Amino acid sequence: MCGILAVLGCSDSSQAKRVRVLELSRRLKHRGPDWSGLHQYGDCYLAHQRLAIVDPASGDQPLFNEDKTIAVTVNGEIYNHEELRKQLPNHTFRTGSDCDVIAHLYEEHGENFVDMLDGIFSFVLLDTRDNSFIVARDAIGVTSLYIGWGLDGSVWISSELKGLNDDCEHFESFPPGHLYSSKEREFRRWYNPPWFSEAIPSAPYDPLALRHAFEKAVIKRLMTDVPFGVLLSGGLDSSLVAAVTARYLEGTNAAKHWGTKLHSFCVGLEGAPDLKAAREVADYIGTVHHEFHYSVQDGIDAIEDVIYHIETYDVTTIRASIPMFLMSRKIKSLGVKWVISGEGSDEIFGGYLYFHKAPNKEEFHQETCRKIKALHKYDCLRANKSTFAWGLEARVPFLDKEFIEVAMNIDPEYKMIKKEEGRIEKWVLRRAFDDEEHPYLPKHILYRQKEQFSDGVGYGWIDGLKGHAEKHVTDRMMLNAANIFPFNTPTTKEAYYYRMIFERFFPQNSARLSVPGGPSVACSTAKAVEWDAAWSNNLDPSGRAALGVHASAYGNQVKAVEPEKIIPKMEVSPLGVAI
Question: Which residues form the active site (predicted)?
Fold first, then answer.
């Protein structure tokens, strides 16, 4: 993984331009502290800042084909690179890097090879034979990527806004699952799964198939030549990630390098719900657990650094990014270079508490589709940039392409939340791992109510942020908010405060347009706010805004849904094979 920057067709091959590209590349140095490189071919520049994880000794970039006519700078992990190498018997690879296959696949298949890659990636490939280039981003947008255009006709590519915002006339987020070709001068979608059309699937729920797909997604991500760990909040998603990793670590190459003892990490305010649950899970699955505490003041002090690194003014993203940013620094100080994390599950399975109010399976499924499509603007952006601020990589097995296709092909009737039947949010995922003979997790953890990360680190956290904003944003300032910020006008003092900081770092109109907006309750899309008339008066991204659902909802109006039904036993072997 690394930070990439490319300037293509700028009509300037001078030393001064090269120095400028190097200067901008250094803005991404936090993403890749292990090595930096710059390849220039005429007026095209490919730069990178490397975080070395696979083949640290020889995998420096840019990467090339045999005669160096094709150059690639890439931020990513290609999990099926060994299989792909076997399909290229007539090619000679210069390194052991998993990304070394990209240039050679392009030689064999042209621009149509991207769907062959199983992993997360964003890359720029320069073909010097005809001075053309292609740019591509992974299916969901786990890796961050932006594209910009200069007045001189140049195209700019960067892992972060700060690599191009000062030099481009216009820039925007590079769309996930797309390829940009200089020959066509337009975007083309390469990722076209069945769920993308939002048509309602009808496949029956198969708990073992779902379990096996997730286990496969976790295991393939244990590809490493450096130390790693797992983020463990004590919620369902991170706990399953940790449990599966711990169960299958032995026998992997990762274990041969670094041993079979898995390290887990959690962050929160003193007394936070997540800390207690995470300790219990860690003891149950046998990890070496590291618990980090921070105070509300620690978080407030980090606000400006966090907004600079994550490049958004979205309230819920900032709330959750701050503790993750603080934890990532601690993790990196221990010598760990990457972690496995649980992002994506709530979008796929309708895990946010507002899904309790979904009126029917059609709207439930369509909302999950909308949420997955928007992940690159929210949780993927947070997980990528909060960790990479300290040169730490996050891998997310729930967003594995194959797993998503299995999970999104399930008839959404099975995902619907039905209190009277004992089916709480993400019931299909919980049921898949409810193994009486060889349990993955304690039962009460497996059926723990959803806590959004910004709530789970401590309920006082959000209240502290709101209080801090109250001191810095006056009522008079709010009266003029629509005139000062006509696009995505902040409706709360907290949002106004974050917006002021963002605009100071990124004053361009393209920057403010790159951030999503619209009404939301408990992380819903604007469309889902329509599910409950009461929500329009309680718009807040916290899970506690789901009145009548969350056990600690604002005002505590209604008791939370409790699991009421004993789940039937599913007998499987220790390896997950049905008996």
Answer: 2
